[in-house]
Every structure is written in C-alpha cells, then in structure tokens.
Amino acid sequence: MSAEVRASHADRDRVVDALSVAAGDGRLTAAELDERVEAALTARTVGELAVLTADLPAEAGTRAKDLVRIEQQGGSAERGDGWVVPRHLVIESAWGDVTLDFTRAVIGHGTLHVDLDMQGGTLRLVTRPGVVVDTDSLALDYAKIKSRPSGPADAPVVLRVELAGRKSFGRIVAGPRRRRLFGGSREQG
User: Fold this and answer.
1) Nearest of 16, 78, 83 to residue 43 by alpha carbon
2) Secondary structure of residue 19 in the 3-state scheme
3) Does residue 108 form part of some domain?
4) Do 83 and 165 have their domain in common?
5) Is there a contact between 123 and 172 (Cβ–Cβ < 8 Å)?
6) pTM of this prediction exceeds 0.90
7) pLDDT digits over 86-113, tens only?
8) In the Cβ-directed half-sphere of 68, how many Cα atoms lie within 13 Å?
9) Residue 3, in any domain of the structure
10) 8 Å CB contact between 114 and 164
C-alpha cells in the first residue's frame, strides 16, 4: 500500500490501539502517548500513521511473517513506508531492481536474513540509524557493493540485515537516502 493512500478510521484506530499497548508495556511515556495519539487521530495518510509506530515492535495484526519471497524477471520491486520486515526474505531477480526501504519500516525483531539470487539490476537498501547491513556471506560475480553508514558508529543496532547467496552483475547500494542541495530527496546510488 502506498504511503500516500488516505487513512481510514479503522487505520487510525489500529494505530491508537498499538500505541496504547506500547505505553502499557512501558515503551512510551504518557506525554509521548498523548502526542502520538493526537497525531494518529489527525493523520491523513497511511504514511503519516506508519511513522508513529516505526520505532515500536510489531504487535498483533502487524506481526512479521517468517518468510516473504520477491520473484521477478525484469521490472522492479519495492518495499517502502510502513512495510512489516519479515524474519527471512528470499529474493530471486533477473535483470530488475529491488528496493528495500527501512526508513519507515515496521521492525519487530533484530535480524532479517536475506537469501539473494540476483542477476543484473540493483539491490538498494535504504537504511536509517540502527540498521546495519552485513554482506560477509554474499558471493559476487562481476558485481560491486557501495555502502555508506546511516548514522553514528555507536548508534544502537535496531536491525541487522544479513545478505547471503549470490549477486551476479549489477550492484548493491546500502545507506541512507541522499539529500538534494535545494530540498527534497532522491534515490541513492
């Protein structure tokens, strides 16, 4: 679902419920709860709602799946605002691009195992502080990796993305979204 899709009353209610559970668990102070509930009740899009729970573990209704697959021939696949990060992701792609944007993803556990079988194209991992990409178990054939840190080296790790498998031709780009000099943002790479 696109982040620009208008939020429904049910969408807002689900976020308010998740915030209430997080406050009951001691993850939010009373002041943070009040601030976020007010923002949820006035949110216009699902993207605005996703931001309010992005730093909280996935709760019932948004539980992470154990396994998700992305299979494609050409074209592109993207996971963006508000996507629930699974525990295990299998990517099989030939001559297409895959983008995994973690900036506003729902992260409910500490590790994402990615089994990669990708020929050509670009794998983009858009990170935020606390998201670390590990490529030690990845075999490269005529491919290259470009990686930039997304925050201070001492930032607590929220998610470790472990890439394993094979990347033939093309590239892997990992790091924060680059900013333009005159406002806005653009894809990295």
Assistant:
1) 16
2) helix
3) yes
4) yes
5) yes
6) no
7) 999 999 999 999 999 998 888 878 899 9
8) 16
9) no
10) yes
